[in-house]
Design brief:
heterodimer, A: 220 residues, alpha/beta, Rossmann fold, four-stranded parallel beta sheet, three-stranded antiparallel beta sheet, B: five-stranded parallel beta sheet, 25% helix
């Protein structure tokens, strides 16, 4: 799931100083699940902005902000506002901006990562969307996301007691976890092979990516 | 009630009388309570809450709630105040007894419960302590009365200043013969004084951190089920001195001087304090002998009342023997269960909340099978009780348990060598997954589950490994039982691995005395404290001492060295003031604890409040045998501090509760459980994870979270956290609550119905109410929605208060704690937006703290 968290209120206030009436738009999917931008959080932020006298706030939450069809109700509401403050992830903010080219669209959230919900109120980063998944080789532990240096042929040797030298208190060494998993699977010989350099063109480094499926009606 | 209902007469309207009345009334009996005083409540009505920033489990609020509920105008329980029974006659009108009371009034009764409470020990009888002569000497009861209504720092009677140095003196009027030349027989432990004094001491330190609190003690008794974590916290803020002060005198400059012997240093100490609090014990109630004569019941050697079950006359609460609030309630419920079982009364009202006419009741089918898990004698006794009620009972043991063996077990089925992997479902429809030794799994269904972990095991002691000269308590008991020859020098070691309670101490004292009386010349018990807080335990302790058993109290466990068929034990004795180095032929390590399987069993059942030997708090609102999950009952939770009677009481209560729950194939639900809108649910699992009662599960077919109506406690904690706002609690909907938020109420108070609402009602009666404020009732502080708090501010409130129960004494387990977290977040957001965070505040109180409520309204005490 995409995991995001709300920006500092100061920063949000900063976007809105020139505006009189905004549409605070929530999203009912990922950001609801991670308690950052759903109907409840829209209500919280809306109240706070009104109490602080920042501007008038109209609140509305749609099913998802990454599909244009769900914006059907939004057009009328947006017409009466001079800006949109999106509580969706970065995807939602961008689609909203595309659909409302004449309205400033601001992000209320920082989109952080795709991650695992470890339990109530805790999420950890799992996937960086590198586009060339090698989890099958590394025992299901991602060297790109779980290693602080994203090494393809780790470990770097700096870890101590299984903790990463970059953050010994909180971050586990990704390569220690890879080693432990492969050992449990009796596949340690995998580590003897040298993993060639990654084709980063498949990652964002090659520009914004696009997927098309002709069998679903899209043109190549 | 109809003419044919059996009638119960209860003498005494204190906590035990109230608890018994509620149980008997709910079973359909016609209940009358006669009370000597002009009003109900007994002693507990004038006690105060001891919470610091969290509940300290004194149970005062629980006791007061029983009383309030039993004697509310609509309880259906008749109360005759200012009345005492004077004569018992054979009954007429088809009833067993006829009781003549002064008034005069004649009452029919089929069962009589004596619940007349206790008399506080009269501290003035111990003249050297100066109670009644010296102003700054108080009793524990005086402190209770000072704390009721509000928890403010105690002041010295002489000058109304807060004391800087406070001394608690334990065992005043308890555990003494004629030491102070009193004529009263008080050589028993009153059991409640260590618990109340330590809690009062903690509260005083919390209210005034610069005050020093010293506790003069002989042995510290267990203070409830969380003792293992409670006592170290006490040791870090209170000063403990093992001494029994001789006397107290007033100094010329207003101080009071406590005189005691520092045994280790062999000197007399005169230490100045500002205030002394005498921890007085419990004596038999006033008029006990006269009452015993009226009803023909025996009294024990100390004057406490006994029962006469053949005549259906029982004694419950402190009038039966000294005990605390929780034990009084448990005993009252157990006796009520026995009474109902003997009457074969199957009338029961499955408990669901009263409803408005608009909600639809539904009949929910329940499985009427019961599963009993665990080990030990209570498993068999519980199974027997359930089978007698006609309920199909399966016993599941982790190993093989001779008591639960299928050939001799009273249960319908016995499954051995099986562990519980998980427990899905909810009351009336549990699904237990079991795994056998071979790894095969099977599911069994049950309407109710009992966990009875009464097979205590010996705890290992790292300092000495078993061998020919080291054994454990069961090992020694076997030696005694099989007439094995015993050596000349036997040492017993207690409390070395975990603090041991009354159960273990009873076995150990009996064993040591047995050895001494049977000619073993040298028997010594090494322990931290002698645990004697039960009927006859002090007498057992003394008789063991008289037979020659030595008791050495240590601070650090002895060093044990096994060599040449001897055990050498080296230990500092603070009473002798030197190191004691002696060798023994046999060392018996006595510590017991819940078997390891117990801890994992609670995890598998997803129960809150771990009840392991490691301690952990136990919510005071869990009534006897209840756990966090409705339909799952626990017996033996007191572990080594339980006694056999307590286990029997818990068994009766659990069996009765299950019988009532599963009396019919379907249970009526009032229809007011929390409701989840499947369209809005985003399957985030927030509510599934947070429900403290495990009442919400994710329904994979319907792709939505779903509330099990019978398990839902209607606290609303889920509704106020759902990120999609998909959950509503009938009677407390968003729409309804927002409509209540009037315009321009300067002070809006979200008030928990269990604490703040009754406190507010009392405040209003006292004439203290602000016209510019508004009270919004919620079932629990955990129902308070941060969105409603902000809405109140938007609609013109200057201040929004959320008032609820102390965290850890929330009726819904963690509603209060969650409310606190949410309020902290709201305050942070306000502050980050440049607004004043103190406009939103949280306060904790109990139902009888009307003064505290008023101070909170006036912003005079808002901890957070």
């Amino acid at each position: 799931m995409i995991v995001a968290e709300r920006k500092p209120i100061d920063e949000i206030k900063g976007f809105l100083t020139k505006h009189d009436r905004i549409l605070l738009l929530g999203c009912g999917t990922c950001v609801t699940v991670c308690n950052a931008g759903g109907e409840r959080e829209v209500g919280m932020l809306g109240s706070i902005l009104r109490l602080a006298g920042v501007c008038k706030v109209v609140e509305h939450t749609i099913e998802r902000q990454c599909d244009a069809e769900f914006y059907e109700d939004v057009y009328d509401l947006a017409n009466e506002c001079d800006a949109i403050l999106s509580m969706g992830c970065g995807v939602g903010v961008q689609l909203a901006a595309r659909l409302f080219p004449d309205k400033p669209v601001y992000p209320a959230l920082n989109t952080k990562f795709m991650g695992i919900n470890e339990g109530a109120g805790e999420w950890t980063e799992a996937c960086l969307a590198c586009g060339d998944c090698k989890l099958g080789i590394f025992g299901g532990v991602c060297p790109v996301a779980q290693c602080s240096k994203s090494l393809a042929n780790g470990p770097c040797g700096g870890s101590e007691d299984g903790m990463c030298e970059a953050d010994p208190n909180c971050t586990e060494c990704g390569w220690q976890r890879i080693y432990d998993r492969l050992k449990a699977l009796d596949q340690l010989e995998v580590l003897e092979a040298v993993e060639p350099p990654r084709d980063w063109s498949r990652t964002h480094d090659g520009g914004p990516r696009r997927i098309t499926r002709p069998d679903l009606g899209a043109e190549e | 009630m109809s003419e044919g209902s059996p009638k119960a007469l209860i003498v005494g309207a204190g906590v035990a009388g109230a608890a018994a009345a509620l149980q008997l009334r709910s079973a359909g009996l016609d209940v009358t309570v006669v009370e000597r005083e002009p009003s109900a409540g007994g002693q507990v009505a004038s006690y105060g809450c001891k919470a610091t920033d969290a509940c300290l489990h004194c149970n005062v609020c629980v006791g007061q709630e029983q009383i309030a509920r039993a004697f509310a105008p609509d309880s259906g329980i008749a109360l005759l105040a200012g009345t005492q029974p004077v004569q018992l006659r054979p009954g007429s009108n088809g009833h067993r007894h006829s009781v003549l009371c002064d008034g005069p009034v004649e009452l029919d009764a089929d069962v009589v419960l004596l619940a007349t409470g206790f008399s506080p020990y009269q501290a003035e009888l111990i003249r050297p302590y100066g109670y009644g002569r010296i102003a700054n000497v108080l009793t524990g009861l005086d402190v209770e009365h000072a704390l009721v209504g509000d928890r403010t720092m105690l002041l010295r009677p002489s000058d109304s200043h807060p004391p800087r140095r406070v001394a608690f003196i334990q065992c005043v009027g308890s555990r003494s013969e004629h030491v102070h030349r009193t004529s009263e027989e008080t050589d028993y432990c009153s059991a409640v004084c260590c618990p109340y004094a330590l809690r009062m001491g903690r509260l005083l330190k919390h209210l005034s951190p610069e005050t020093s609190v010293t506790v003069f003690y002989m042995d510290i008794q267990f203070c409830g089920r969380s003792f293992e974590s409670f006592f170290p916290d006490c040791q870090s803020v209170l000063r403990f001195v093992r001494a029994r002060p001789y006397g107290i005198q007033e100094d010329s400059d207003g101080a009071i001087v406590v005189t005691y012997e520092d045994q280790g240093a062999c000197r007399v100490v005169h230490e100045p304090f500002d205030l002394a609090i005498l921890s007085i014990g419990m004596r038999p109630p006033p008029g006990a002998r006269a009452l015993a004569d009226v009803f023909g019941v025996p009294v024990d050697p100390y004057g406490f009342l006994r029962e006469k079950p053949d005549a259906a006359i029982f004694a419950v609460g402190a009038c039966e023997s000294p005990k605390d609030i929780a034990s009084s309630i448990r005993q009252a419920e157990a006796v009520a269960a026995r009474v109902m079982a003997s009457m074969e009364s199957t009338r029961s009202t499955p408990s669901t909340a009263a409803t408005a006419a608009t909600l639809e009741e539904q009949r929910i089918p329940v499985c009427r099978d019961v599963v009993v898990l665990g080990g030990g004698r209570a498993v068999a006794e519980t199974a027997l009780g359930l089978v007698r009620c006609g309920l199909h009972t399966t016993v599941v043991c982790a190993g093989t348990d001779p008591v639960a063996d299928s050939a001799t077990s009273p249960a319908d089925d016995v499954i051995t060598d099986a562990t519980v992997v998980r427990c899905r479902g909810s009351v009336g429809a549990f699904e237990l997954r079991l795994r056998d030794a071979g790894g095969r799994e099977r599911d069994i269904r049950a309407g109710a589950i009992v966990v009875a972990l009464t097979d205590l095991v010996s705890l290992p002691f790292s300092g000495a490994v078993d061998g020919t000269v080291v054994t454990d308590l069961p090992g020694l008991l076997t030696m005694i039982r099989t007439d094995r020859p015993l050596p000349d020098r036997v040492a017993f070691l207690l409390d070395a691995t975990a603090e041991q309670g009354r159960m273990t101490d009873t076995l150990v004292l009996a064993a040591t005395r047995c050895l001494a009386e049977n000619g073993v010349p040298h028997v010594r018990l090494y322990c931290r404290h002698a645990r004697v807080a039960g009927p006859h335990l002090e007498a057992l302790y003394r008789s063991a001492r008289r037979s020659g058993v030595e008791v050495l109290r240590y601070v650090e466990p002895p060093l044990c060295e096994v060599r040449n068929c001897e055990v050498r034990m080296v230990c500092d004795d603070e009473q002798l003031g030197r190191t004691v180095d002696e060798s023994f032929d046999l060392l018996v390590r006595c510590d017991l604890g819940v078997s390891q399987k117990g801890e994992s069993l609670f995890d598998a059942l997803s129960l809150d409040t771990p009840l392991t030997a490691a301690g952990g708090t136990r919510n005071v609102w869990a009534m006897p045998c209840e756990t966090s999950r409705r339909g799952v009952f626990a017996i033996g939770a007191s572990e080594t501090d339980a006694d056999l009677r307590e286990l029997a009481e818990e068994t009766s209560i659990a069996v009765r509760a299950i019988q009532s729950l599963l009396a019919e194939p379907a249970v009526t639900d009032a229809g007011d459980a929390a409701e989840i809108d499947p369209e809005k649910c985003v399957a985030c699992l927030t509510c599934v994870r947070l429900c403290p009662h495990e009442a919400i599960a994710f329904n994979r077919e319907k792709e939505t979270a779903e509330v099990a109506p019978l398990a839902c406690r209607r606290c609303g904690v889920c509704a106020s956290e759902c990120p999609a706002r998909a959950i509503q609690l009938p009677h407390y909907t968003d729409q309804g609550l927002l409509a209540e938020l009037a315009e321009a109420s300067k002070v809006t108070v979200f008030a928990c119905e269990n604490s703040a609402i009754p406190a507010a009602a009392a405040a209003v009666q006292q004439g203290n109410w602000r016209a510019d404020s508004q009270l919004i009732e919620v079932p629990c502080a955990g129902k308070v929605d941060p969105l409603h708090i902000l809405a109140a501010l938007e609609r013109g409130a200057e201040r929004v208060l959320v008032l609820g129960c102390n965290p850890e004494s929330c009726r819904y387990l963690d509603g209060s704690s969650r409310a606190l977290l949410r309020i902290s977040r709201v305050k942070t957001m306000l502050r980050d937006a440049g607004l004043d965070p103190s406009r939103v505040a949280w306060g904790a109180l109990i139902a009888t703290e009307a003064e505290r409520f008023v101070r909170m309204m006036n912003d005079e005490v808002m901890p957070i």
